[in-house]
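Q: Here's a chain of 551 amino acids. Please give me its 3D structure as C-alpha cells.
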Amino acid sequence: MSLLGKRWKILQDDAGKPVLKKLLEARGFSELPSNSAPLEQLHDPYLMHDLERACERLELAKERGEKVVVFGDYDVDGVTATAVLVRTLHKLGITVSYRIPHRVRDGYSLKNYFLDELAALGVTLVITVDNGIAAAREIAHAIDLGMDIIVTDHHTPPPKDELPTAHSILNPKMEGCTYPCKELSGSAVAMKLCLALVQRNMPEGEARDAFCDRLYQVAGIGIVADCMQLVGENRSIVQLCLNSIRRNPLKGVEALLTKAGIDHTTVRAADISFAMAPRLNAAGRLDSAYDALHLFLNQSDAVTTIAHRLDVLNVERRTMTQDAFHEAQLAMMGADEKIAIVLGEHWPPGVIGLVASRLVDALSIPAIVFAKKGDEYVASCRSIAGFDMVAELRIFADMFEHFGGHAMAAGLSIRADRFPLFKEAMQVHARHVLQDRDLTPVLLVDTDILPHELTLETIESMSALEPFGLGNPEPLFLLRQVRPMYVRAVGADKSHLSFSAEGIKGIAFRMGQHAPTIEGKLVDIVLSLDVNTWQGKSSAQMIVRDMLVHN
C-alpha cells in the first residue's frame, strides 16, 4: 500500500520508449497537439437553445431604455460571469446594474426580496448568471411583478416539470439543447451570449476583437476556478484566456497576479487555480463578493487596494479552513461510514466547501459539511467518481429547502430539525450503494520516467499539452526505486516533506509526517515536474503525489 493508501494505475509502461512518446500515447495523441488557432475551435453560440431569443430580448431592452440587472453568484465562476455580461451590456449602451447575493445573509440564487427591491426600482429584465435553473418559484414571483427573466446557468437542470418559466433559458445541459460542449462554466455560458450580442451589434474590426479578447480573459478564469474539464471548447477558451493575460491583462488581473508574486507574461492555468481563484473566492467566502467583481470591472489604480484586501482575506480564510478541517477530522474519527456528514454550528459557511474537499481527499469517501445559518443548516457536498451527488440528493429532495449542483459538487439547505433524519438516511443509503472497491482511490499515472529524464527539457516539451486541469491533468510520472537523501519536514507546522533524489530536489505537500518512514529507504515516487527558480537559476523539481516504500 502506498503512503497515501492509493492504488496506482500506470497508463503506459513501455520501458523501451522515450518519456515524451509514452506520455503522448497515454493521453491518446500520436503527436504533440497544436495550440494554434484556438478561436477556430469555438462553437457557434447560436447552437445554444434560446440564445437568439435572449439576444432579441436584450436588444428590445436597449431600444426601450429598460433597466436591466445581472444577478450573479459569490464564487469566482459567478463573479466572472457577472463581469462578462455587465461589461458587454454596458459596451452596447444598455442600462445595466448588478447584484450578487451575500453568502451568509442571502445564500445562493434568487430570492423574492431581491426581486421585490428590483421591481420597486423599475427593473424590467433580470439576467441570472451561474444560477437560476432551480429557481422556479422565485422566477414565477418575478413574472407576477411584471419582470422578464433570462436564465444563463450550467448546473444540472431539475426535472422538466420543475423548470422555471423564464423568458429564455441558456444551459447546455437542458434537454433538447444541441450545444456540443455540455461542460461549460457559468462564465462561459454568459460569454456565449455576449459573443452573439457583440457579433450582432458591433462592427467587425480591431475594436471588436480587442473587446472579445477581454471576454475570453475573464470567462477563462471562471472555467479554471470552477474546475471545469479542460478539454474541447473549454481548453480553447482557457488558451485564449492565458494568451490574453500574457499579452494585455486587465488592470485588476495584473494587480492580483502581482500580489501573488506571479509574472503575468508567463501565467499558467495552475496559477489561476492556486493563486488567483483562492484570493478571488475569499471575498465571497468571508465578506462580500463585490470586491472580486470590481477587480474585473475597475480599470483605475484602485485595483491595487482591492487586490491587497483579497490577499488579506485569503490568509484569514486559510486559518479558518484549517481549524474547521481539524474539527471535522475529529468528528469522523472512529466512524465507519461510507459518507462523511459533519456539522459545525460555528463554522463560517464560506469555508465548508473547502472542508468537504479536504475530507474527500483525506478519507476517499463523499463528504457533506454543514454549517448553521439562522434557523437552517446549509451544506456543501463533494463527491467521488461513481457517486452522482445531485442524483443521490434528489432522493431526499423533500427534506430540503433548496438543493442543486453537479455530480461531483452540490449545495443544499435544510431545516435544523430535519438534519438528524437526513444524516441517518443518507448514511444508510451510502452503505447500500457504495462498495469498498469504490472507496479505494486510484491514482492515474501516465508513465514511468528515468532519472536522466527529470529535466527542464522534459518540462518544456510537455507545455504543448497545456493548459492542465480537470479532464487534462498535469502529467504524473513514476520514478522507480530511488533512495531519498536529506529528508526533512518543512513548513511553519512541519507538514511538508523536502528531500533530494538522483540529484533532483523534491517536495511533498502535507506529507511531513512520513519523513521518518522514507529516511534511507528505497522508494517508488509518483510525481509531477515543475520548474524551481532560485537566485536566477532554474532547475527541475519533483512535486510528489504519492510514495511506496520497499521493505
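Q: Can you summarize the key feature?
A: The mean pLDDT is 95.
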